[in-house]
Amino acid sequence: QLLESGGGLVQPGRSLRLSCAASGFTFSSFQMNWVRQAPGKGLEWVSSISGSGDRTYAPDSMKGRFIISRDSSKNTLYLEINNVRGEDTAVYYCAKDGAIRWTFYSWGQGTLVTVSS
Amino acid sequence: DIQMTQSPSSLSASVGDRVIITCRASESISRYLNWYQQKPGKAPQLVIYAASNVQRGVPSRFSGSGSGTSFSLTITNLLPEDSATYYCQQSYSPPSSFGQGTKVEIK
Predict the structure, then answer these.
(1) Which residues 44-63 of A are in CB contact (within 8 Å) with B?
(2) B46/A98 Cα distance (integer angstroms)
(3) Does A68 touch chain B (CB under 8 A)?
(4) pLDDT single digits (tens) B8-41
(5) Are B7 and B104 in contact (CB under 8 A)?
(6) Nearest CA of chain A to the CA of B95: how many Å?
(7) Is the N or C terminus of chain B more exposed, i.e. has fewer CB atoms within 10 Å?
(8) Other CB atoms closer than 10 Å to residue A79's CB: what's the count?
(9) Which residue numbers in chain A have pLDDT < 70?
(10) What whole-number distance in Å separates Cα of residue A83 and Cα of residue B63?
């Protein structure tokens, strides 16, 4: 099970940290991912982190402001978003990899981030 | 970066129909192609992985095919609960990318 939290209303330019609590599987064995969906739009991959946490991946458009991390002692995945912009308004989902990397086998319910002054 | 293009963007079909959604990659991705179903207000769910493997718990009326750059998702005997938006996604290499989605409506 994956349960996101940390979303809400945030002012432009501020920072925000999202969390994803994982249960029911060996957290450190799986790559974890963040995917977002702007209102009425499609899915967009944000970032991924290896099971050990030593490698992170993100599209060029997300590098710099989005920082993914994980704490295996807490079975929790994080996404820090810095200098938030209006275009960051979206539902943010965490998703778990499986036997095939970059395949999102299970998803959380999502947490909504709204950027507005 | 690999671009994914789905067609059609939406379709309307009747219960019992066969529906086919296509997805094209801008370069070869072998069989690293997944399909997700998303219902309004819900998280996406994996339906098909590695082009043709049906995810556990998904009804057998869902099937996938293709390789290289051309793929398809077929829903046979369409049911009302299949009304959703379907996304393809390439898992060949990062940056991972999704198609723009196909909305399936029931007439």
Answers:
(1) 44-45, 48, 57-60
(2) 11
(3) no
(4) 999 999 999 999 999 999 999 999 999 999 999 9
(5) no
(6) 5
(7) C
(8) 27
(9) none
(10) 43
Amino acid at B98: F
- Measured between its terminal Cα atoms, the distance across chain B in Å is 37
Question: Residue B13 has which token pair?
Answer: 């079909």
Three-point CA angle A61, B21, A105, nearest 5°: 55
A109's CB contacts (< 8 A; 6+ apart) are A2, A3, A4, A93, B42, B43
Residue B96 CA to residue A40 CA, distance in Å, equals: 20
- Measure the CA–CA gap between B42 and A83, rounded to whole angstroms: 28
Cross-chain residue pair B91–A102, CB shorter than 8 Å: yes
The pLDDT score that the predictor gives to residue B14 is 97
Residue with tokens 């086919």: B20
Rounded Cα–Cα distance for residues B102 and B86 (Å): 5
How would DSSP label each residue in B13-37? E-TT--EEEEEEESS--TT-EEEEE
Q: Interior CA angle at B20 toward B14 and B21, to 5°? A: 115
Measured in angstroms, the CA of B91 and the nearest CA of chain A are apart by 5
